[in-house]
Design brief:
The structure is a homodimer of 502-residue chains. With 502 residues, chain A is of the alpha/beta class. Chain A has 18 helices and 19 strands. In chain A, strands 1-6-3-5-4-7 form a 6-stranded mixed beta barrel. In chain A, strand 11, helix 12 and strand 12 form a beta-alpha-beta unit. In chain A, helix 3 crosses helix 5. The first copy, chain A, is globular and about 75 Å long. Chains A and B meet through strand 2, helix 1, strand 5, helix 3 and helix 5 of A and strand 2, helix 1, strand 5, helix 3 and helix 5 of B. Strand 5 of chain A pairs antiparallel with strand 2 of chain B.
Amino acid sequence: MTHDHKGNTLKLKWLGIDTYRENIIFMRSDCDICISEGFTALTRLLISHKGKTIVATLDVVHSDLIAHGQAALSEIAFKRLDAFEGDEITVTHLDPIVSLSDVRAKIYGKKLDDSAFYRIISDINKGYYSDIELSAFISACAGDNLDLDEITGLTKAMVNTGSKLNWNTDKVLDKHCIGGLPGNRTTPIVVSIIAAAGLTIPKTSSRAITSPAGTADTMETITNVNLTIDKLKEVVQKEGGCIAWGGIVNLSPSDDILISVEKALDIDSEGQMIASVLSKKAAAGSTHVVIDMPVGKTAKVRTEKDALKLQYYFTAVGKSLGLNIEVLITDGSQPVGRGIGPSLEAMDIIAVLKNEKDAPKDLKEKAEIIAGAMFELCEASKQGEGVLLAKQILESGKAWDKFHNICLAQGGFMTPVHAQYKMDILASNSGVVKEIDNRRLAKVAKLAGAPKTPSSGIYFCAPIGTKVSENQVLYTVYSEAEGELNYALEYINSSNPIIIIE
Amino acid sequence: MTHDHKGNTLKLKWLGIDTYRENIIFMRSDCDICISEGFTALTRLLISHKGKTIVATLDVVHSDLIAHGQAALSEIAFKRLDAFEGDEITVTHLDPIVSLSDVRAKIYGKKLDDSAFYRIISDINKGYYSDIELSAFISACAGDNLDLDEITGLTKAMVNTGSKLNWNTDKVLDKHCIGGLPGNRTTPIVVSIIAAAGLTIPKTSSRAITSPAGTADTMETITNVNLTIDKLKEVVQKEGGCIAWGGIVNLSPSDDILISVEKALDIDSEGQMIASVLSKKAAAGSTHVVIDMPVGKTAKVRTEKDALKLQYYFTAVGKSLGLNIEVLITDGSQPVGRGIGPSLEAMDIIAVLKNEKDAPKDLKEKAEIIAGAMFELCEASKQGEGVLLAKQILESGKAWDKFHNICLAQGGFMTPVHAQYKMDILASNSGVVKEIDNRRLAKVAKLAGAPKTPSSGIYFCAPIGTKVSENQVLYTVYSEAEGELNYALEYINSSNPIIIIE
């Protein structure tokens, strides 16, 4: 007696229901398949269509929304199956997911080996995990729950389950910022300087996890960042560098899935962060990587001690993957640049690259320091001369030319714009800016709509040390929806000042 | 400038979409409210209707499934709001959930105090947590991650956020089994014995977490277990005892929410288990509680060491709640009784209570031991004479009369029935039954449909020590769907034998 999957076909109906990332199948409660197979709401099912297979959660429909012999899918499930209304799908039981026992072992505090991580990440890649299961895995790995071996195992699993790029050179550069600092959008400037120097830098960036913008979000307001692997190779071969969204090139596909759940939980797990960063670097074919790690009371890394531990982990895990890593511990006490949110940050970047008079100096200097460290790490300059080389390239206008050409090669150049609604936030007293709560400032930008609506965010004009008079503008909040502007304002007024003036 | 929630009303349309436990609101992507408030798919929203409020996740609809000015809800959301098609609802932003920072603190390994647990459990009760957030909380508390103080804090929070019952007596008895052993449905027998002795035992039970049946599932095949608090009091006042589902009387409302996610993850967390059990006992007004803890290689508690630790935790947490707890460590090497699954277990119970000749002896003896310990714990009998008293009451027929009367008081008496499809599983060789894998046996019953379809499950007839010949029936699998029967069979054939014969 075998389990006959053949008969379970249904015709698709389009309902237009967008569940974001979640695969849902809608089936009638009195559907023959539901009854004969014993399917009920929340059952996880295997759906096949012309050689493609996904796992979806069943929502049972008690109305005549779908007819007998029909089923509907959420928008993302239609897309993943490459299916359209009228197509036939096959619906079967999902075999038990073996790697979930590895997740349970981790929840119970056991140490996982390389093969366990490989099983888990492979299944996540295939879309076999529900949001509940992803959340359990992330929570079990958060905090201090992964040791060095486990972080290495997780990183290797992420590399080995994705695509890998190869470049015909022994110096492939890359950079990464640990984040947590609003603004701080050095990447596009650094890539332009490095590529202008004739070096190779196939940069992929992520979208925001818990911040108001990721580099991919910011660059998307200027050019296309959704490059296929072929397109990415073409851009890098032509210009030496690119600034692409990492998710779409599928270098570490599980990472974007994990990040979307981390975002919903608003947590950043140390081990997952290291694995996320280094797996993408290894998969991109990088050999020399500089990591910018801002440290400050309200940055992502809060203490020198945490920074040193992360520095050690990054270097050690990098080594076992064959990467040369340098971690720069930088100032994390306040935003870098003036814009916070995709479009506003893009405006800063363009101003720096164009050597405009009022371009944010702090952003320019930080980009030069990072590019300089990269020159030295790969021995493209002597020790101590990296920053000077970066400065020369930037100020000569070569970096701007390179940036503009990279954008054109990626698909075109757009000028970022301001949002429709804005509101100035004023100083309640005069004095000197003493301290800034980066987290709460970032939260304001998020409540205003960043990065979802790219033009929303904050224009910040009160760095530490600024002398301000009463009612002077500290920052301006931008939003495309009045509701969100009000919501951000409610938050600003709900507790202690975000910018402390003494 | 304030945040005006007034304007956001929409008229409800019924779509009949059953998402099980999850509140979903369906809104048009071009809906004015979505645009002005900046709502996108997966946004969590506050939905109000005539004084009731729930939190729902937004699914955006791109089709004409719902008209302008309309919204739809999942079935459970309609029910929780007490709303119908055509009713008007108000939709607003959800303020940030403060207790989620407590959950994050726990994920990061921090110790939580009583007030943190109170905040978390209150919000879970209100339905503010998404499945992702519930999963993170459960995972963070699983394993050994809660210490004694934290388990006590969690338990108190569960008690203080639910209803509490009061009985006019200083002896209110209760029992609980840690589970993991298929069959083992002693509760209905024990309650009948205790109540027949004139003592008070307002027993509430849960539904299955990861097993093929909970006591509530089993009793539901005989009588109504969905008692309101008023009805429960009426039954206990009349009969001295009841056997009700704990979820519906709202004694520890957060517990059923947590259990549904634990079930999806297939994990049982130690701290959450203790909190779950004791919060229900305290809320039910119990004073004397006997806990049956089967220990065995494939039971929930696997070693003597684990059992002693749990025994200590139960007793200590119980003490701080003012409960007298006795933990009986029992044999967990094999199923108790013959039925596994709601209806099949119910048949065993009735046979024991009716003193039928072929009633399972092991189930009868175990019920007597537990009832005996309860008599001694509350000093209703002398030490060493409890079991004898229990035996006398059971064999006199008084326990059966009491059981029948309790069922009638709860709403009627039904006779449980067998499922439509069945299949005998035969011994592949002759010999003596040496060992039984309880977990995999339970899994077979679950794959066959238990407890979802109550009549499905296993009739087990090969306890340890049984002499069997080749092709003798070891157990029979029952199911209401051929698909499930096949699925169970596939699992049985997929690996090592579940019953070892030597």
